[in-house]
Amino acid sequence: IPSLISGADLVPITPITPPLTRTSNSANNNAVNGINPRFKDEAFNDVLIFKNRPAVSDFLTILGPSGAALTVWALAQGNWIWGYTLIDSKGFGDARVWQLLLYPNDFAMIKNAKTNTCLNAYGNGIVHYPCDASNHAQMWKLIPMSNTAVQIKNLGNGKCIQAPITNLYGDFHKVFK
């Protein structure tokens, strides 16, 4: 049975702190015209993606079609997000509970209830970092589907969250994009 760990020894010791951000002066940054552009030269961007302050959702659990719940498996920021069944992750408590920070045009940041960190696209997976409203890797597009499910697509890399289950009894602990 999986268990929640601190994970401090699994990531760099240097704490990851979000930058001080500023609001854009762009007239295009609003609910109608969309988001601030991402810098193309990899320079640090301290401009918020949206001018708008987010609305905050109630607490929720994010489940994939296979029944895998997005779960922080190690508390230290920078660790991977995994998919566990609800029964396997019972001992994780609020590590599998999230809040949506809702922005215009169906964009959201996804904040964990236990760590107060946000989902961050990273390589071929997802990690949790301090919430940073200027980070495109932490902004997710919520795309409603015809079956009432929601596809979750990252603004930074264009990939969607999925938790593929090929071995019903052995794969519940993986989350890939």
UniProtKB/TrEMBL annotation:
Keywords tagged on the record: Cell outer membrane, Lectin, Lipoprotein, Membrane, Palmitate, Signal, Toxin, Virulence
GO molecular function: carbohydrate binding; toxin activity
KW Membrane (keyword) present: yes
Subcellular location: Cell outer membrane
GO cellular component: cell outer membrane
Main location as per UniProt: membrane
Signal peptide start-end: none
Transmembrane segments: none
Membrane topology, as annotated: Lipid-anchor
InterPro entries in the cross-refs: CDtoxinA/C (IPR003558), Ricin_B-like_lectins (IPR035992)
Protein name: CdtA
